[in-house]
Amino acid sequence: MTHFRMSEAAALIGVSDDTVRRWAADGRLESSTDSAGRQVVSGRSLAARALALAPSAEDGAPVRRSARNRFTGIVTGVEISGLVAQVELQCGPNRVVSLMTAEAARDLDLEVGSRATAIVKATTVIIETETR
Question: Which branch of life, at top level (predicted)?
Answer without folding.
Answer: Bacteria
